[in-house]
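It is worth pausing here to work through a concrete case rather than discussing structure prediction in the abstract. The textbook approach is simple: state the sequence, then state the predicted structure, then interpret. We follow exactly that order.
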Amino acid sequence: MDADRQNALARREIIAAHLKVLDRLEELVEICSTVAGDTSELRSAVQFAFGISPIAADAVLTMQVKRFTPSQRHMIQKELADIDHWLQRSMEA
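Step two, the predicted structure:
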């Protein structure tokens, strides 16, 4: 697998996790406000709750609140669609 495709797949994983969490923001806030442990325990709780990888959980935990707006959500959805389109084209080439 070439580096561009690997990077696109890694980025896709993060963007998909962002969208998954945006659908369940209240749950994310609840997790963040109740986990008593350190960052590692918080990451694990987010991973488990949303079924995402450690890297995706870290990306979710570093999201800025401004990403929660409808316009930002639309931009994230568009980026995911663009990545999916690029990946599809790269498989056909």
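Step three, interpretation. The mean pLDDT is 95. The CA atoms of residues 17 and 51 lie 9 Å apart.
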